[in-house]
Amino acid sequence: MNVRDSEHIIAELKGKENYSLTDDSSNADLILINTCSVREKPVSKLFSEIGVFNKKKKNGAKIGVCGCTASHLGKEIFKRAPEVNFVLGARNVSKISEAIKKDKFLSVDIDFDESSYAFGEFRNSKYKAFVNISIGCDKKCTYCIVPHTRGDEISIPADLIIREATKAAKNGAKEIFLLGQNVNNYGRRFSDLNHKKMDFSDLLEMISEIDGVERIRFTSPHPLHMDDKFLEIFALNPKICKSMHMPLQSGSTRLLEQMKRGYSKEWFLNRALKLREMVPDASISTDIIVGFPGESDEDFEDTMDVVNKVKFEQIFSFKYSPRPLTKAAEFVNQIESSVASSRLQALQNRQEEILDEISKKHLNKIYKVYFEEKRSNGMLAGRSDNNALVQTEGKDEWLGQILDVKITNPRRLALYGETIF
Ligand code: SAH
Ligand code: SF4
Questions:
Q1: Residue 220 preceded by cis peptide, ω within 30
Q2: Degrees (nearest 5) of the Cα angle 331, 348, 377?
């Protein structure tokens, strides 16, 4: 979502204010730092980054801090770093033109409604188009700062989403990547009370009918809202890529309750295994937090049990990081950092074994790969429908094409193969 926010900011500045991008910060008129605050580490990096840019910047150049840390620290950023000219919260991106024209500007209102704002066009990739479908998040997971930085959830009007996806497809993007904190809760609340009633499955069907759209991906769906209708559309619609992100967080029902995730270990396993049965070739990725307050050895074993049963193709694993404004930061039973670290290590070691097992299964398979990038090793890289990273020798004109690749050397992090015609 931050990447897309940055694209929106660049689109506004290029389209309306005559700015262009530079790689050289000492030559820039404006330096923007778009921030994350989900975990503590990026927040602590912010002030050292500001210091570095302040030394490098040319006379009169401005510095702006955007994103979630801007939302949660607000005017404190001015106190700690007076050289910053403006602070623009994650939900205030559309005010960028106003911000750059003032000496000091602060806008971090998490109730500001940008859901119907039509941003200008800028995309980092011509092949893949990120499209936001909602802003904010209505869940109140006890560890998570996002609802406090991005506010309540509002779905973006369907016609705006369709218009954006259609334009991207016309410009050559075969893949539309839908973004939201809770995508499969789409339709929960629109600003326009007369908006047609619809849900995420309806939206997926509408997007799949757009000319030129060949692939649809999305993140993040919430396991709680993975009902049968959603799984069926996922399985049956050929344009929906067969890779699902299912953020588990913990395998322990007791901890899931403490986290206020709204589902149990059994529900998660039921959904994941049903998905494996319905679409055997689908890949499933997940997010896991270790060391949540009160996590016992048994709770962690429950997490490992889910990992062993589902055998995720990819795990994003994090050590719990207490965040300001969240309930869990106040819990008295915080876990020792060394215990969390050793659990994280055990989880990652097990996942490496699982990946070694999984990667062997790809040998000699033929995948449709959408070539998007030329790597520094000279190889072309792209993703299979089920999101495996595939690399082959190839020609530059294959970029932007979906071609069949036979896997000859499956490795843990990438599959190597040969294009077949
Ligand atoms: N809306 C998404 C998550 C967005 S945040 C969802 O519900 O899945 C991305 C990931 O960061 C989360 O899935 C979680 O695993 C991790 N995360 C969030 N808060 C965290 C915290 N306080 N400590 C460690 N990891 C955290
Ligand atoms: Fe955070 Fe939970 Fe919302 Fe995801 S669903 S953004 S983890 S509060």
A1: yes
A2: 130
Q: Which of residues 107, 135, 152 is at a domain's end?
A: 107
- Average pLDDT of span 413-420: 94
For residue 115, tell me if it sits in a domain.
no
Atom of ligand 2 nearest to the CA of 261: 2
Percentage of residues of the chain with pLDDT beyond 70 = 100
- What is the CATH classification number for the domain harbouring 394? 2.40.50.140
Q: Within 13 Å, how many C-alpha atoms sit on residue 242's CB side?
A: 20
**144, 150, 321: which to mutate for ligand 1, most atoms within 8 A of CB?**
144
Predicted pLDDT of residue 421: 87
Query: For residue 346, what are the domain limits?
Result: 248-361
Closest ligand to the CA of 40 = 1
> How many domains are there within the chain?
4
Helix H or strand E segment including 351: helix 337-360
**78-109 residue pLDDT tens:** 999 999 999 999 999 999 999 999 999 999 99
Residue 221 in any domain: the answer is yes
Structure tokens at 420: 């077949």
Binned at pLDDT 50, 70 and 90, residue 42 comes out as confident
Q: Are residues 377 and 356 both part of a single domain?
A: no
- Tens of pLDDT, residues 6-39: 999 999 999 999 999 999 999 999 999 999 999 9
Are 28 and 57 found together in one domain?
yes
C-alpha span between 350 and 344 (Å, rounded):
10
Which residue ranges have their beta carbon within 6 Å of ligand 2?
137, 139, 141, 144, 146-147, 181-182, 222
Q: How far is the CA of 91 from the centre of ligand 2 (A)?
A: 16
CA of 38 to the centre of ligand 1 (A): 7
User: Closest ligand 2 atom to the C-alpha of 150?
Assistant: 6
Q: Are residues 101 and 154 in the same domain?
A: no
Q: Is residue 398 classed as helix, strand or coil in its secondary structure?
A: helix
Q: How far is the CA of 277 from the centre of ligand 2 (A)?
A: 27
pLDDT in tens, 351-394: 999 999 999 999 999 999 999 999 999 999 999 999 999 999 99
By most ligand atoms within 8 Å of CB, the mutation choice from 135, 142, 182 for ligand 2 is 182
Residue 118 forms part of a structural domain: no
Residue 222 lies in a domain: yes
Which of 316, 339, 361 lies at the terminal end of a domain, its last residue?
Answer: 361
Answer for the pair 306, 251: CB distance below 8 angstroms, yes or no: yes
Mutate to test the pocket of ligand 2, among 181, 224, 321 (most ligand atoms within 8 A of CB): 181
Question: 321 with 41: CB under 8 angstroms?
Answer: yes
89 Cα–ligand 2 center, Å: 18
